[in-house]
Amino acid sequence: MSDSSNDNLEQAMQEGKYIRTIRSFVKREGRLTKGQAAAIEKCWPTMGLEHQQGMLDLAQVFGNDNDVVLEIGFGMGKSLVEMAKSAPHLNFIGIEVHRPGVGACLMDADEAGITNLRIFEHDAVEVFADCIAEGSITTVQLFFPDPWHKKRHHKRRIVQPAFVESLRSKLKIGGVFHMATDWENYAEHMLEVMQAAEHFKNQSETNDYVPRPDLRPLTKFEQRGHRLGHGVWDLMFERIS
């Protein structure tokens, strides 16, 4: 990066402008099935959210004032749809950059007749910065994010101090950041970052991890991991101020 670029970046950050420098994901388009493509065409007008819409009025988006659960990186959306179906008294927002996953989630949601779910197909960090109002979210979920297991790639992990601080402002007081991973090293990284984060309280009685709560469905991937003896670590941190 040139000296002038460094100067421009530093000036923008001093002015409070959001600058994305390192991405925590690799964009993979993949091929849509006919069902996924049809679901996007059918459901996007009512369930899709666009980054360019800017700051959301969540009561207007959902037509009610119910608490909002936001999930980052929902994959194919199976567990997100299951949660939305099981908790009609809550509103859900899912964010995913993988288009086939978006299509699969919308297809399952449509088949289940779900109306309390909205979807972004966009970078979660930019959605948080530009579309989510402060103090508007009850729970943020981050389940099985890319662990970037090679040490030189750890900087790409989404759970970093700057992101946690930006996320904190979006949570209501008493709101929870719920993480889960099947990589022990990433669990340790998450715990280290969250323990150092101000204004959060660990909900673990042992000040580390919590048992999987019933609200997080057990996925087929996770069931297979249990059979093979693989561990899964849940962390739940509450915003206290």
Automatic annotation (TrEMBL):
It is an enzyme of class 2 (transferase). Gene3D superfamilies: Vaccinia Virus protein VP39. SUPFAM superfamilies: S-adenosyl-L-methionine-dependent methyltransferases (SSF53335). Pfam families: Methyltransf_4. Keywords: Methyltransferase, S-adenosyl-L-methionine, Transferase, tRNA processing. Its EC number is 2.1.1.33. InterPro entries: SAM-dependent_MTases_sf, tRNA_(Gua-N-7)_MeTrfase_Trmb, tRNA_methyltr_TrmB_bact. It catalyses: guanosine(46) in tRNA + S-adenosyl-L-methionine = N(7)-methylguanosine(46) in tRNA + S-adenosyl-L-homocysteine. S-adenosyl-L-methionine binds at E71, E96, D123, D146. It comes from the Bacteria. One of its GO terms (molecular function) is tRNA (guanine(46)-N7)-methyltransferase activity. Substrate binds at K150, D182, T219, K220, F221, E222. Catalyzes the formation of N(7)-methylguanine at position 46 (m7G46) in tRNA. PANTHER family: 3-DEOXY-D-MANNO-OCTULOSONIC-ACID TRANSFERASE/TRNA GUANINE-N 7 - -METHYLTRANSFERASE (PTHR23417), PENTACOTRIPEPTIDE-REPEAT REGION OF PRORP DOMAIN-CONTAINING PROTEIN (PTHR23417:SF14). Belongs to the class I-like SAM-binding methyltransferase superfamily. TrmB family. This is tRNA (guanine-N(7)-)-methyltransferase.
